[in-house]
Task: structure prediction
Amino acid sequence: MRKAQFKGSKQIYFVATCAETPWITAKYTKKLADEKHFEVLGFRSILMPQSYITGGLSTPDAENKKILLFAEPKIDELAPQIKAGEKIPEEPLGKSWMSTITNPMMYATMMSAKKFAVSDKCIGCGKCERNCPLGNIHLIDGKPVWGKNCTQCNACIGGCPVGAIEYGKKTIGKPKYYLEK
Ligand code: SF4
Ligand code: SF4
Result:
């Protein structure tokens, strides 16, 4: 957001997906909005399936489907409010102190792509390379190679169409959530 050029309205909404609570995300986004001189008209979080498989967290497909069904009416309610330019009341942020403590620790110790590995199942489709929001994956001789700029979004491991990616041993045999477009 700091690097992006924005044109048009100076009013802004934030919609965040999360697997538990948004914790401190709303505060971070407001800070960024202030830097960019935006007026924040609302922040809302939408509960989505747990995708942090590299952190050992995953939920079965059946549970994920229920979470998605619950999210849809929330999105349907929110979209017209945003379209109409309405101010959206603040929602409770949950344990924001947890993020303050855990975020720096997690980034210092856990946000690494070192343990990613690809198996012989790989068909060289390049989806993992295209999916990575940080451009951290490059196909070399038809197989993915990970760089050092990883935020553990898990789009590579979750989105692989043949389940060829694992993260050490802890992801083997676990459900890897990814929402296709
Ligand atoms: S998405 Fe999977 S199959 Fe496609 S290149 Fe990456 S690891 Fe290989
Ligand atoms: S897709 Fe996400 S988890 Fe995979 S390398 Fe890129 S940033 Fe890391």
User: Anything to note?
Assistant: The chain has two domains: 11-103, 116-167. The chain has a mean pLDDT of 89. Residues 62 and 68 are 10 Å apart (CA to CA).
